[in-house]
Design a protein that fits this description.
alpha/beta, 7 helices, Rossmann fold, about 250 residues, 7 strands, seven-stranded parallel sheet, globular
Length: about 250
């Protein structure tokens, strides 16, 4: 990013819960202004906004939207520019995740997983790119180690994330000439899924991790901070933050 007297503005989709909220806190502590998107988590969104505004005024804007609604994506970028006058970083973090066993998938399931994990990141990137270019900004996509190593029973999700990996690389090539970097983070076992997962399954996963432990959301937040502030000559890269789990798959 180009140095400026104004704080950089970071737009995080799905930015008010779990990993998104941890990333928000880390970047806010670094002096960045935030735009946090949420769909249904209004209580968590306003609580996080109040927490961060108590630390620095006018530093957090909340935007509610269903990312399935493509015209809303362009409108959100317009709202950011109207409020802050700039956009420096887009983090495509929002993601639907659930099993899709073959034989049980209908078109709505397909559209839901493809929309949040692939379609919305593309159209947000398209809307944000002219503004990111003005400040030599960047896009960071949240992919998954299972984009390249499929997870049983999650074929649609894995396909969507694989598409997002290719989108990351394609956008990096297309936007490199205007100074916009595009990279991705591929988490491993950071937070357990919100749906049921028993202790035996958790132990089996951890046993396949080279470091023999799961990670935490701040491992992702620190990687994103590195991509924003330090990785000025990196683009088109997929950084696996997985404790070495992919070494055993």
């Amino acid at each position: 990013m180009q140095h400026s007297s104004q704080p950089p503005v970071v737009f995080i989709t799905g930015g008010v819960k779990r990993v998104g909220a941890t990333v928000a806190r880390r970047l806010h502590a670094e002096g960045m202004n935030l735009v946090l998107h949420y769909r249904q988590s209004a209580e968590e969104a306003h609580a996080l906004q109040d927490e961060l505004l108590a630390q620095r005024e006018n530093s957090v804007l909340l935007l509610q939207a269903d990312l399935d609604h493509t015209p809303k994506l362009q409108h959100m970028v317009q709202q950011i520019i109207a409020h802050y006058g700039r956009l420096d970083v887009l983090i495509n973090n929002a993601s639907s995740f659930y099993p899709t066993r073959l034989g049980d998938v209908d078109e709505q399931i397909w559209l839901d997983l493809m929309s949040s994990n692939l379609k919305a990141p593309f159209f947000l990137a398209q809307a944000a790119a002219p503004h990111l270019q003005q400040h030599q900004g960047c896009i960071i996509n949240m992919v998954d180690i299972h984009a390249q190593r499929p997870l049983a029973g999650h074929s649609v999700y894995c396909a969507a994330k694989a598409g997002l990996v290719m989108l990351t690389q394609s956008l990096a090539k297309e936007l490199g000439s205007v100074g916009v970097r595009v990279n991705a983070v591929a988490p491993g076992a950071i937070l357990w899924p919100e749906n049921d997962i028993d202790d035996v399954a958790k132990q089996r996963i951890v046993s396949n991790i080279a470091l023999k432990r799961h990670g935490n959301p701040d491992d992702i937040a620190k990687t994103i901070l590195f991509l924003i502030k330090e990785a000025t000559y990196m683009t088109g890269q997929i950084l696996a933050v997985d404790g070495g789990r992919t070494l055993n798959q």
